[in-house]
Amino acid sequence: MVAKRIIPCLDVKDGQVVKGINFEGLREVGDAVEMGAKYSRDGADELVYLDISASSEGRKTFVNLVGKIAARINIPFTVGGGISSIDDAARLLDAGADKISINTAAVKNPALIEEIAQKYGNQFVVVAIDAKMIENRWTITTHGGKNLTERELFSWAKEVQERGAGEILFTSMDHDGTRNGYACDTYLALSEILSIPVIASGGAGNSEHIVDVLSKGRADAALAASIFHYNQLSIQEVKQALQAANISVRL
User: Fold this and answer.
1) 212-244 burial string, b = 16+ CB within 10 Å, else e?
2) Using CA atoms, how far apart are residues 178 and 225, in angstroms rounded to an integer?
């Protein structure tokens, strides 16, 4: 049985990890390198770093930061945020990232998924999907949930897989930062139509939520931020709860 993964997510701006609710009201919670090193020591299976800087100068700073992270941690990490071309992806992979995550750029130019996958391999490409429930339909959003698109979650997820994504990171924008639990039914539906791993994001408030999304939701990994950043739960506490629920994890 493949072990389920626990993945802390670190939103980064100007070298600092920040957190808000529904991508708003951001506040600093710590140094990106130091927090990543701590999570690595504490038993995280992987990390995700998302660059939310708006300026090109901020993007350059992030590339340098990726090199510092790679030098300090010994677990895989994915980086995303503002990647809009194969050159952007190349800079981050060359700096030491294990995978790159694309979101808005994939919606705008789906061929980018194929381009990166063909050059680097499917395992390097994570497509992040943000969606909101609007009139009983999961509508894809871009730019951190600010812009609605015409795309629908399940058809887009299938297209992303067909174009060569190695994993999907789905965030329910309705659940993000609320700590009220994941959209488990939706993850279950995604798992039934996809053959690639699905990472669950948005809504972790306690260990039970993570147990639910990895069992009832059949997600392959759980992403969380607030509960770890604010020391509400440790990674080991989450993994012990998963083990108690007979869910395979690496302790």
Assistant:
1) bbbbebbbbbbbbbbbbbeeebebeebbebbee
2) 11
pLDDT by residue (tens digit) across 62-99? Answer: 999 999 999 999 999 999 988 999 999 999 999 999 99
What's the confidence (pLDDT) of residue 29? 78
- Give the contacts of 239 (CB within 8 A, at least 6 positions apart): 6, 43, 249, 250, 251
* Euclidean distance between CA atoms 251 and 122, whole angstroms: 27
Write down the H helix ranges in the chain. 32-42, 56-72, 86-95, 104-108, 111-120, 153-162, 184-193, 207-215, 226-229, 235-244
Kindly indicate the confidence band of residue 226, based on its pLDDT and cuts at 50, 70 and 90: confident
User: What DSSP element (H or E) covers 21?
Assistant: strand 16-21
Per-residue exposure over 88-116, b if at least 16 CB sit within 10 Å of its own CB, e if not: bbebbbebbbebbbbbbbbbeebebbebb
CA distance 185 to 150: 22
Q: What is the value of pTM for the model shown?
A: 0.93
Q: What is the amino acid identity at position 43?
A: G
Residues labelled as active-site residues: 11, 130
Residue whose token pair is 């510092």: 68
